[in-house]
Amino acid sequence: NAGVTQTPKFQVLKTGQSMTLQCAQDMNHEYMSWYRQDPGMGLRLIHYSVGAGITDQGEVPNGYNVSRSTTEDFPLRLLSAAPSQTSVYFCASSWTGSNTGELFFGEGSRLTVL
Amino acid sequence: AQSVTQLDSQVPVFEEAPVELRCNYSSSVSVYLFWYVQYPNQGLQLLLKYLSGSTLVKGINGFEAEFNKSQTSFHLRKPSVHISDTAEYFCAVQDFGNEKLTFGTGTRLTIIP
Predict the structure, then answer these.
(1) How far apart are CA B15 and CA A71, in angstroms?
(2) Could you say which DSSP state residue B83 is in?
């Protein structure tokens, strides 16, 4: 049972470099989201999507882009990495029909920007 | 907009003692409430949820939580903790009709042998 798969698990970037964090789910979930986790700040929503072709901003979207071309995939792009983006990133997905909000999380991607 | 406050960032508890982790929320509409647990170096997993009905909700690993609408609280309890309960616990709220979850800042539960 794959669930939500994130790659890479660890990444080190230099300031100004770009990269994409990959997220894939095999549960046919309509809703997918990206959170960042920082000490003392809990999880903050970056971007989310309620279906293929539909994305929207969360609480902290600046510096990040997303797209949703398929139901399964929801990549997060950093166009020009900054040290403030050093964090642990989590992708999460859920069904939308029942609207119960139970999220299924990936194992996280730890990003360090030097 | 919804918000969640977890009043304690760290809670140390002796093994086999009871524990309560506090959570208060703010919202202008009806809500769903959740507790998630994060074990070291892992993602979050659902512990329990309140959607409607009975205000006392039971979850996995012997945890339970009580929804108190008048106090806008959803405190998590366990009568006797074990070493394996060492983790970070997050309270979360979702407004009716809104897909987004808002998380609290987390409470780190440390079990003392």
Answers:
(1) 44
(2) G
Mean pLDDT estimate for chain B: 92
The distance of B23 to chain A (nearest Cα, Å) reads 13
Interface residue A88 vs chain B (CB under 8 A): no
Strand pairing category for A10-13 and A109-113 = parallel
Contacts of B9 in chain A (CB under 8 A): 40
User: Which of these, A32, A14, A24, lies nearest to A86 by C-alpha position?
Assistant: A14
With contacts defined as CB-CB under 8 Å, which chain A residues touch B97?
A: 99
SS3 state at A35: strand
Angle made by CA atoms A22, A26, A28, in degrees to the nearest 5 = 110
Peptide bond into A8 cis (omega under 30): yes
Chain B closest CA to A105's CA: distance in Å?
Answer: 6
Give tens-digit pLDDT for A90-99.
999 998 755 5
CB-based contact, A19 to chain B, within 8 Å: no
Cα R_g (chain A), whole angstroms: 13
The tokens of A88 are what?
A: 């642990």
Segment A7-66, tens digit of pLDDT: 999 999 999 999 999 999 999 999 999 999 998 888 999 999 999 999 999 999 999 999
Q: Please, which residues bridge with residue A25 across strands?
A: A4
